[in-house]
Amino acid sequence: MFVELKHYHDYIYVIKQHGFEEVNTDYTTDGHTVWKDDKQRIIDLHCFEFTDDGIVYEGDIFPSKTFSGIGKVGDITVSCIEPLSQVMLHLGYEHDKNDVHDVMLLCETFQIAIPDEYKEK
């Protein structure tokens, strides 16, 4: 989940009120934290900022259109990262089985070419 910097602390307050606690991981950074509750539900939280140049995340700038996708969480329509950008954000790091699952599903559903680093070798 991506949360805008100006709402980040409010979001943390709300998820803590719902029983989530921060879990330190190898990939925890100032802009990327992981939260878990006693039901083993996980929130993978990314903090970003809108600027005149685009969207800033972890020091990188992404085009504003990155968040032009529309999705659903249950019955609620939400803005989200459009499919190609979701795939691109899964590149350049050591991925796990969850990353592979997500990328393969995105590629299949939206007819996106599977990136080389996700092709079986």
Reconstruct the topology from this structure.
Layout (H helix, E strand, L loop, with lengths): L1 E3 H13 L3 E3 L8 E5 L5 E10 L2 E4 L2 E3 L6 E5 L2 E5 L2 H6 L8 H14 L11
Parallel strand pairs: 1-4
Antiparallel strand pairs: 2-3, 3-4, 4-5, 5-6, 7-8
Tell me about this structure:
This protein is of the alpha+beta class and 121 residues long. Helices cover 27% and strands 31% of the residues. It contains three helices and eight strands, in the order E-H-E-E-E-E-E-E-E-H-H. It has helices at 5-17, 83-88, 97-110, and strands at residues 2-4, 21-23, 32-36, 42-51, 54-57, 60-62, 69-73, 76-80. The strands form two sheets. Strands 1, 2, 3, 4, 5 and 6 form a six-stranded mixed sheet that branches. A hairpin with a 2-residue loop joins strand 4 and strand 5. It is globular. The two termini are 30 Å apart. The model has no long low-confidence stretch (mean pLDDT 91).
Outline:
The chain has 121 residues and is α+β, with helices and mostly antiparallel strands.
